[in-house]
Design goal:
- This protein has 723 residues and is of the alpha/beta class.
- It has four domains: 300 residues, Glycosidases (TIM Barrel, Alpha-Beta Barrel); 91 residues, Immunoglobulins (Immunoglobulin-like); 211 residues, Rossmann fold; 54 residues, Golgi alpha-mannosidase II (Immunoglobulin-like, Sandwich).
- The protein has 19 helices and 33 strands.
- The strands form eight sheets. The protein has an eight-stranded parallel β-barrel. A seven-stranded mixed β-sheet has the order 21-20-22-23-28-27-26. Strands 4, 5, 7, 8, 9 and 12 form a six-stranded antiparallel β-sheet that branches.
- The protein is globular and about 80 Å long.
């Protein structure tokens, strides 16, 4: 491979390892050096010719101020797990039992106490304040006259006394440092302190070119347990629970005209997960937080700009309220966004954010341990394998969209014992620069096929479900989105209100999928008869409707799948056990389809509603993939979808079978190979994601072209239209 110009790479430098920092900067082609959580730069690094990134977590690292003002710490609601009353006269419930008391401290202030609630969860009844009392010394709630064998919970406010990402980094790396506490800028005194602090910081750091905000104010919810065996009590990368305080709730009620309660967040102990369809209260609260984050965030960015520096934001960690695709993000005037990622869909998520610079922070992070505490840069770890795995996932998306920069983070010195890793990062960086150069020179060919993904979050949260791949991969739709991330088609996202404003004829393919009742399938949104009629009509008039898992599922109607009349398949949840059903015909799909779907999970109770529905793949007498002709259109139903290069190819070819072969133009017949064509340059790039040498035909306008790629190889070659 020819080495291209250096640049587009951010190196995690480290004081005390200056020689290593400069050596790897040269090797990896870095043009910027950053500090990381736990590392610092020194004068020799600051005074180099590299652009300098400085990492700031604006709400963390102010322990002296926080100790002086403990009531300004961030807060949240917690709920006790539930206590069963037996035959005792009074029931005493310890409030912090099971929670990490390194993370939480009870908030029984007058402002917070008014939001506490005690529930009889057996009856689902809110107890009156006269039915219980709080013992501040024992930190318990006492119910004087509980009903025997009823289950009671307490919802209460807690201060968060150790910021979660600091906590994670501390535990992961066995650090012995002071616990960092999170300040809440909801308070005017904290805002004044932060503005003054940032102004002074910018004055004292003239060497900094880019202020890398990590991220802004509020973390995704991460509730730690007291027991190591159950450390993660609740984690939701898209939740707003850690932005809640008495101050925010009071301000919300004043601004929005109605109050919120603890139960609006606790939700019987289930919390209002991102995977659940948001109700109007949740949407209103999210919008309220976003308004606050945008208004105060803009003031911080303005200070950075006034000092001649650029402001980037890290789209992870304390990102709640940022909502990069929301209506207020652009009001903050960030110059760039940085996304840590493992998968193709996350690259697509980053690429379309409205900022000038889009940067990916690669994995593995330079920590001793990686995901789930597994060894990475430690005995038993294999950082080279990790880096290759994640890069191959990401690279196929980079063929479709332009990313400006990549980089790494962590402790650079950990790489010293892994020369194969440093060699691979050099190769990876060159591959990135080759791809980037193509996008900078010309537009990539994209088929004139438009796909719309329909779920409850829509355009507000495209190209994601909730968090990284390993946090959402039990949900079928994330596998579908990962496949779409490398397709040469336009992909948009809409929620159930947005789709009503769209012109259906603008789209060729509509996708819905997920478990019944989730945000992804849609839940109660499918009670709208106009929605059912509109999608049915659109399909009948020539659209391709694709459903995965339990699409359009909702109890209470003739069919469980509300679009069963279009799909030609429905799911029996028990009500039709005595009903006769159409016999399942022999699967008619191609050998390729059946092999690709072999690992798909079965859906219990699936049955055909139309004898003309064609079963393309089946297992154990149950359908896996069903196709139904519907007027001028078509519907495809998948009981499951597990992403792989083979299943992605299968889905692409099935869409092509309906939308026309134009979608397959400039793609490889071998699913292990991904291609992208840049017509204005007359150049094509092909990448091999397999560990084997592969030969394949590339589909062209007037025939095919044979190519051969070595394992993992990336190849750019000339391709003229007349071919």
């Amino acid at each position: 491979m020819s080495t291209r110009e250096k640049g587009g790479f951010t190196l995690p430098g480290e004081a005390g390892y200056e020689e290593l920092s400069f050596a790897l900067a040269e090797k990896w082609g870095a043009d910027a050096i950053r500090d990381s959580d736990g590392t610092k730069l020194n004068d020799s690094l600051y005074q180099s010719d590299f652009e300098i990134y400085s990492t700031l977590c604006i709400i963390r690292g102010h322990n002296a101020f926080a100790k002086q003002h403990p009531d300004y710490l961030q807060q949240c609601f917690l709920q006790t797990e539930g206590t069963l009353a037996l035959n005792e006269d009074a029931l005493e419930i310890p409030l912090l039992e099971g929670f990490s008391e390194e993370q939480f401290a009870l908030n029984a202030s007058e402002a917070a106490f008014k939001y506490w609630q005690v529930w009889d969860r057996t009856e689902n009844r809110l107890l009156e304040p006269s039915e219980w009392r709080f013992d501040p010394e024992k930190k318990t709630v006492i119910i004087e006259a509980p009903l025997a064998f009823r289950r009671y919970t307490v919802s209460f406010m807690a201060y968060r006394i150790w910021e979660e990402i600091s906590m994670y980094n501390h535990v992961t790396n066995a650090l012995d440092k002071e616990h960092l506490m999170p300040l809440d800028p909801a308070y005017e005194a904290v805002q004044a302190y932060m503005l003054e602090w940032l102004e002074k910081w910018c004055e004292e750091h003239p060497e900094t070119d880019v202020v890398r905000f990590t991220s802004l104010f509020y973390n995704f919810v991460w509730i730690w347990g007291s027991e190591e065996a159950r450390r993660d009590l609740y984690v939701d990368w898209g939740a707003y629970d850690f932005s809640v305080s008495a101050k925010m709730l009071d301000d919300f009620a004043e601004t929005r005209g109605y109050p919120l309660t603890a139960e609006d967040f606790i939700n019987q102990g289930k919390y209002k997960s991102t995977h659940m369809p948001p109700d109007q209260k949740k949407r209103d609260y999210m919008a309220f937080v976003c308004d606050f984050v945008a208004d105060f965030g803009a003031k911080l960015v303005e200070i950075v700009h006034r000092h001649g520096k650029k402001a980037y934001v890290f789209y992870d960690d304390s990102w709640i309220g940022l909502e990069p695709y929301g209506p207020r993000f652009s009001d903050m005037h960030f110059d760039g966004i940085i996304k840590c990622l493992f998968s193709a869909y996350e690259a697509r998520m980053c690429a379309a954010v409205p900022v000038k610079t889009h940067e990916l922070r690669l994995h593995p992070y330079l920590f001793p341990t990686g995901l789930g505490g597994a060894a990475s840069f430690a005995p038993g770890g294999d950082p080279l394998a990790e880096a290759r795995k994640y890069w191959l996932n990401i690279r196929r998306a980079l063929l479709r969209v332009k990313i400006d920069r990549i980089g790494m983070g962590g402790y650079l010195h950990l790489t010293e014992d892994y020369p194969e890793f440093t060699d691979y990062i050099a190769q990876l960086a060159d591959e990135f620069r080759e791809i980037k150069a193509l996008h900078e020179a010309a537009e990539v060919y994209t088929a004139k096929v438009k796909v719309l993904v329909l779920h409850a979050w829509g355009s507000k949260r495209p190209w994601t479900l909730c968090g990284h791949w390993h946090e959402s991969n039990e949900h079928v739709l994330i596998h579908v989105i990962e496949a779409l991330a490398g397709f040469p088609v336009q992909v948009d996202f809409a929620d159930f209100s947005e789709i009503k404003a769209l012109r259906p004829e603008e789209y060729d393919v509509l996708i819905n999928g997920g478990k019944a009742g989730t945000a992804w399938s849609g839940g109660a949104a499918w009670s709208d008869p106009d929605l059912i009629s509109r999608i049915s009509e659109w399909t009948y008039n020539g659209g391709l409707l694709i459903g995965f898992g339990e699409p359009s599922a909702l109890e209470g109607y003739q069919h469980y799948f509300r679009l069963a009349s279009v799909f030609g398949v429905d799911k029996d949840t028990g009500a039709r056990s005595n009903h006769g059903k159409w016999p399942l015909p022999e699967a008619s799909g191609s050998r390729f389809v059946q092999q690709s779907s072999a690992d798909f999970a079965l859906q219990d109770g699936l049955y055909l509603t139309d004898p003309e529905a064609e079963v393309l793949s089946a297992k154990e007498g149950a359908p896996l993939i069903v196709r139904r002709r519907f007027g001028k259109g078509q519907a495809l139903y998948f009981s499951d979808f597990i992403y792989s290069s083979e299943t992605a190819q299968m889905l692409l070819e099935m869409i092509a079978d309906f939308a026309g072969d134009k979608i397959l133009l400039y793609t490889a017949e071998d699913p292990a190979l991904d291609c992208a064509f840049f017509p204005a340059l007359g150049k094509m790039i092909a990448v091999n994601s397999s560990a084997e040498k592969r030969s394949s035909k590339i589909r062209l306008k007037n025939g095919v072209r044979e190519i051969t790629l070595d394992a993992y190889q990336q190849l750019i070659f000339d391709l003229k239209e007349e071919e």
